Amino acid sequence: MRIRAKIVFVVIPILMSSLIITGVVSSFSARSGMTRVAIEFLGFKAEELENYAYSQWNLLEQNRLHEDERYLTVAKNAVASYAESIIRSDTELILALDSDARVAMASDDIELTVVEKARLYRKIHQNEEGWVNFTLGGVDRVGQSFLFPPFDWYILVTESSQAFYREADQIIVNTGYVLGGSIVLSLILLFFFSGYLTRPIRQVVKGMHYIIETNDLSHRVPVEYDDEIGRLAHTFNMMSTELERAYNQIKEFAFKAVLAQKNEHKVRNIFQKYVPKDVIDTIFLNPERMLVGDNRVVAILFSDIRSFTTISEGFMPDELVNALNRYFEMMVDIIISRGGVIDKYIGDAIMAFFGAPVKHEDDAVQAVVAAVEMQEALRSFNSEQSRNGKPEFKTGIGINYGVVTVGNIGSEKKMDYTIIGDMVNLGSRLEGLTKPYHQNIIFSESVYRKAKGKIPCRLVDKVVVKGKTKGENIYTAERSITARQKKAWQYHHTGLKYYYQRNFNQALKYFAGVKKFLPDDYLADLYIERCRIYIKSPPPAGWSGVEVLTSK
Q: Which of 82, 165, 218, 535 stands the most exposed, by the fewest C-beta atoms within 10 Å?
């Protein structure tokens, strides 16, 4: 079989499979992307409607009219009007059902069948919220659902399935047309170019046979094209020259090896700015273990500047660099002084760890102390910023303690002494929690077990962070606390004891007591609001007080 035919028979299956896979993946990716955007849009509408409904209910509560049926009816009518106002197509439908699955509010006329009512009844009493698929009035629908306890409503923001997936389905059809046309055109071009490509190969083969028969190494293979085939011929012609060049390179490498040995001390000093001395010593002593990881128990610290994009707008580029350099210098000095290792800078964030390559018994405590000192140093930094008329920095610090894989990770050309593992991800999530909980420092239960009794700690909440299924106690800490803070924290922890026992009335008294000592305490406000909600609408059986977080 000639090479042209081989090319055609080899390339056709590869070409067709590649086009088919690309087309299918692209169409389904586009469909998935459009579907995700549409789901988020329905979710946005549902969230807006829920916020509006709560605003109406809060207005009634503030004016003590929530038990007056007349005003309650007015509020429900206002919610219904708002629901109709956010409808953007004839196929959308927003309705609310009472606890018996009867229609309490609808943006359009709708009559539910007995089967539909039964299915919706189960969803209501199973507290099923979020994305749902169901049938309403004989029409298949998708949408977002949520419970609104004040009105005893189960609200559905829906769109017909046919309209929801219309554009996505059209993408698949269009992709099929494009895919078919591409395959036909590719086959035509393949037959044409295969003959064009094989002609220089035949000439190379002919020239090689001549050299084999005559042993005439001065013969040169003609180079017709600047492509792989042309480079093959050129490489053969330059073989002798390349051998000489290789010999010269060997001598150069030997000379560089001598210089490298003499400059080892200098290299060590330079790289200690980026990699701990213990790590460099290990690499020089055992280079064959450079890529071998090791499981260690370490404390992981993440520090991030909040709203850095907004802050950077108040600086000229050179001023921003100078400010960041001063900030990093202060923070890094504290971390290193406490035995930490700077893993990396992630934009304006710092990732560090304590406990590798040298382990200490108090690594977790040192990480917490470093975090406290970093906040103290930040106040000094911000004082200077304020004097210079520049925006102040606000940071959040998350700390976790657990088993990670630590070592030189990468290749022989580029590697980092770093840590990886699930504990690292949790440390990053804890840093993200500092913003919603209005705390400068948040750390995990494993850190608390090491730090309790050595530094004042306060339980913040029980949470399940995104990507986890198990609840985790999270804490904050101060270097020292005043007598008023100490009393307030005692009230706070007593209130939490009653809170997790579902005794919300008693818990509310203690959290109100916290406010007497610390009027601006955010955590007290948070739990007061939760207690009031649970007093009016008790949580379901099996509630453990764990907050499930859906964002990072």
A: 218
